Amino acid sequence: MHDFTQDLAELAAQSLARTRRVVAGAQGPVLEVDGQACLSFCSNDYLGLSNHPDIVASCIAAADQYGVGAAASALISGHGDAHEQLERELAAFTGQPRALYFSNGYMANLGIPCALLGAGDTIFLDRLSHASLIDGARLSGAELRVFPHNDTARLEQVLARCKSARKLVATDAVFSMDGDLAPLAELAAVCARHGAWLLVDDAHGFGVLGPQGRGSLAHAGVSALHAPHVLYMGTLGKAAGVAGAFVAGDATLVEWIMQRARTYMFTTANPPLLAAAASAALRVIERDEWRRERLRELAAQLTLGLADLPWRLLPSPTAIQPLIVGDNAPARALMQSLREQGIWTPAICPPTVPKGTARLRISLSALHTPAHVERLIDALRQAAGVRQ
To answer: Does residue 238 have an active-site annotation?
Structure first.
C-alpha cells in the first residue's frame, strides 16, 4: 500500500499544499477565520445574498413545510413542488424553454456531456475550461479536443474537419481564475454553422452579468429563439447565495439530459428548502440592480488603486479580480502578509492556474464598501513597498 507522506512533503516544498480554514458564523465581508476577524475577499457570494433576510425567511418557511431532506432521487419521489416551481422560474428568468435542477455545478458538468455524447463523438473544450467540464468530457467516452483559449477561428477550423455525428463545444462563460469572458455570440455562430451543441458554464456570470443579472448569454445577446443548440448551465451557490445548479435550453435536449444524466438520476434530490431559497434569490437578483452597480464601482476603484504596483491586475468586467504575482512562494507570501493585516485573499497556484501565473484571486461582493477596498489597496501597496 502506497504511503503518501513523501508526496505530501513534496507538495509542501513546492508551496502547493492546500490548507482548510475554519470559518465561524455567517458569510459576509468580514469573517471569523480560525478565531481571527478577517476582511474577506475570497467568497463567491458576489451579490451578498447568502444572508439576505428574504432568502433566509423562505428557507425557514420551507423547512417548516417540507422538512430538511428530499429523501429520494428526483426520478423516484424527490422532485417536489418547490423544485418544479424553481425550474419553471429558472427557465423564465434565463429566457429558455426548460430548466433542470441539479444538486451542484460539478454534477451538472459531469452529467451533461455523458448524456449527450459517447464513443465516436467529439467534444471540444476551451483550454481554460473548468475542471468539471474536463472531467465530464473524459467520462463521456467521446474524443476530447482542446482549442486555444477564446480562439473561435481555431475552433472553426477543427470543427470543419470533424466527421463525428455528434459534436459538443464546452466553455466557461466567465473564466473563474482570469475573470475574462468567452465570446459567446461568436461561439454560438460557429457551432450553428457546424452542427455542434454549445454548453456554456456560467457559474460566475449568472446573477452578475446581463440585464437584471440574467447571465452571460443575455449579456452577449444570445437568445434561445435563435440559438436552440445552446445549453446554459448556471450555479446557485455563488451570486444567488444558496446551493445547487441547473441546465436550461431546448426542451427536448433538457428532457434527454434528465433521462440520461447519471449524476441527476442516481443522486438524492436537493432539499426542497434550498429550492425555495433559490426561488427567493431569483426575485432579489432581478430587483436589486444596485448590487451589480456596486460591483462595477468597486472593481473600478481597485483597478485605479493598484495601477502602479509590480503585480498585474487582469482586466475583468466581473467580481473576479485576479492579481498576477508569478511564482508560487511569493504569491503565498503575499497572501500571508495580508492575513497578518487581517485581510483574507487566497493565493491560487498551479495546477489550478498555469505555471508561473500564481495569483491572488480577489473576489468582490456587493456588500463590500469603498472603505473595505481601500483597506485592501493600502495593504497591497504596503506589501509592495509603494508609497501611499
So the answer is: yes
